[in-house]
Amino acid sequence: MLEAVQRRLDLNPGAMRQRREVVEHPFGMIKRRVGATHFLMKRLPEVRGEMALHVLAYNSPGC
Description:
The protein is mainly α.
């Protein structure tokens, strides 16, 4: 299986670059939609909760 993946990457060397760019899109959209330039909370457990709320709102069907 790993050899097959490596062959696909060898045939299309830009695939990983495109993949890296695509993954960042949801986070950029979340930041733009909620106007979030930074987290309001300071400690990691609170930041995780804040980010979870942003992701939940982004993934909800009403948005």
